[in-house]
Amino acid sequence: MAEQAPVALNHCITLPDELEPQPWTIRGRQPGPRGKLAVQITRYPGARKIIVTGRNPQAVAQAGGDAAICLNDDDTSLREQLAAQFANSIDVVVDYLWGTSAVNRLMAAAKTKSTLRYVQVGSLSGGEITLPGAFLRSAPIQLMGSRIGSLTLSQLLTATQSLFADAVPGQFSIACTPLPLNNVADVWDTDDSKKRSVFIIR
Predict the structure, then answer these.
(1) How far from 1 is each of 29, 178, 187, 202, CA to CA, in Å?
(2) pLDDT tens across 12-59, in order?
(3) What is this structure's pTM?
(4) At a CB cut-off of 8 Å and minimum separation 6, what does 11 contact?
(5) Which H/E stretch holds residue 67?
(6) What sections of the chain are H helices per DSSP?
(7) Could you tell me how far CA 86 lies from the centroid of its own chain?
(8) pLDDT tens digits for 153-199?
(9) 92 backbone dihedrals φ, ψ, rounded to 5°
(10) What's the chain's average pLDDT?
(11) pLDDT for position 30
């Protein structure tokens, strides 16, 4: 909680002048708004088509994608819907859920022989999956993770610097509710995942 801390210079990045300084904050635990932010970041450099998947039909429909698939459907229906999208050439999947939904996406991609980079970011639906070995031999799919450890420090700093540089011209925004830190115990379990709770350190 210190206002200042010693950090090696090569671990630092320069924020663009246009980014307004914000109070020291601690982010709340609900991850829902990340999907909408991911859509904005993906669209800014020119993604031709963005397909949003999720468990909340209303949130999926309002996430800003070009197509939406609700993961509450049965596995057979889901794989058919996903295969139809993969057949039109999907380059990258960013997966915040993992679990059963990841298996459905991967199997649908393998069925269409799609060349795909599958990026595992979170595990909200489960930490493990069961995947047939034949799957990895049947389609040109690259599995990778995105978190500290999957990138070198240099790569992480470069990517973060690029993201901050794009934040203002790309008008990236995330829905949030600012709250005083001394209210954390009262509001911690009230977040409905539609907005990010941001606790402000005064």
Answers:
(1) 18, 18, 20, 11
(2) 777 777 765 554 433 333 335 777 888 888 888 888 888 888 877 887
(3) 0.74
(4) 153, 157
(5) strand 67-70
(6) 34-43, 57-61, 75-86, 99-111, 133-138, 153-167, 184-187
(7) 19
(8) 888 888 888 888 888 888 888 777 888 888 888 877 776 666 777 88
(9) -140, 140
(10) 80
(11) 35
Task: Return the residue matching tokens 């999947």.
Answer: 93
Tokens of 202: 């005064």
- Which secondary-structure segment (H or E) carries 178? strand 176-180
- From CA 55, how far away is CA 72, in angstroms rounded? 6
Alpha carbon distance 202, 180 (integer Å): 8
Is residue 168 within 8 A of residue 16, CB to CB? The reply is yes
Tokens of 137: 């031999």
Contact in structure between 198 and 179 (CB atoms under 8 Å): yes
